[in-house]
Amino acid sequence: MIIVFTLILLAVFLTTALSFSYFIIGDINKARAIDNSIIAYYSADAGMEESLYLLQKQEIANSLDGLKTIRAAGGSLPASLGVWDIGDSTNFEKTVLRQRLYNGQSVKFFILNRASANQNNSNSLTLEWYKGGGTNPKLQVNLTQLTPQTQDGTLVYYTDTSELEVADTAVNKFVTTYDLKNIGLDGSILPARTDYLLELKVLGATGDFVDRLSVKAYDKKKGDQNYNDSLDLQGITNLTLKSKGSYGKSTQNIVAQILPKDPVSGMLGFVLFSKEDVTKE
């Protein structure tokens, strides 16, 4: 009986020890994963900062494809052994998406390289947005040509579309399509397709806001057959900088949408990292 009792007692102790070991090892693995994730995140942050620095300060490239060629191997942080790369970055924003814009806030982006149909086939843009619950915002839409025209001896950047959108009060949603007109100041068709700057600004009372604003480019114009099948994934020329940090088995991504060089002012469209639309995946 003593032997049987001893064996039972040992089995209980062993089961208890194994149970505690299971939970302790699980907690250790979770703590290690958190530590690794933090290192991976700051590795991604370092990649983002360096990429913005090379683009903004040193101007060693004017596109993310060019930057990826220079930084093909990514980079590393010697102290922590974390690594990062920007291999998933692109020169295009497939869909401009802003979750929320308040009264007075605005967003802009470019539709570039339209002079050659081999580079950008976009001929129209579709906007979709919702008005914030209990508010009544309006959306100012301006499409400005980036090919200057001469008027009375002065170069003018012509805004051929300027409209104020008001959401449907029944469904709180507005969807509309704007053609890229390519017309001159005198109403004639321009000899070459011009690039465009689209500016969207929310107007209304204090506290009014727009939700889920999205913009897509299409190859066909409004009313053309099979319009919905002509989505142009490279029509919106906003740089999507994606920095992926890795350490151990953990990875973290930081994404920022960046405007290209501003053809109107000649100034760089880049701003400081802290002011970018940055999201963590």
Brief sketch in words of this structure:
It contains two helices and 15 strands. By secondary structure, the chain is an alpha+beta fold. The protein has two domains: 2-90 and 238-280, no CATH class; 96-229, Jelly Rolls.
Q: What features would you describe in this structure?
A:
This protein is α+β, with helices and mostly antiparallel strands and 281 residues long. It has two domains: 2-90 and 238-280, no CATH class; 96-229, Jelly Rolls. 23% of the residues lie in helices and 35% in strands. It has two helices and 15 strands. It has helices spanning 2-58, 64-70; strands spanning 75-77, 82-85, 96-102, 106-111, 124-131, 138-145, 149-151, 154-156, 159-166, 173-179, 196-203, 209-218, 239-247, 250-258, 277-280. It has a five-stranded antiparallel β-sheet with strand order 1-2-13-14-15. A four-stranded antiparallel β-sheet has the order 3-12-5-10, with no helix packed on it. Strands 4-11-6-9 form a four-stranded antiparallel β-sheet, with no helix packed on it. Residues 262-277 have low confidence and may be disordered.
Q: Which residues sit in consecutive blocks of at least 5 with pLDDT less than 50?
A: 262-277
Radius of gyration: 27 Å
CATH topology call of the largest domain: Jelly Rolls
In DSSP terms (H or I, runs of 4 or more residues), the helix count works out at: 2
Proportion of helical residues: 10-25%
Secondary structure class reads: alpha+beta
Give the percentage of residues in beta strands.
25-35%
Principal-axis shape: elongated
CATH architecture of the largest domain: Sandwich
Strand segment tally? 15
- Oligomeric state as shown: single chain
Order of helices and strands: HHEEEEEEEEEEEEEEE
Look at the structure and give the CATH class of the largest domain.
Mainly Beta
Neighbour order of strands in the largest sheet? 1-2-13-14-15
Number of domains: 2
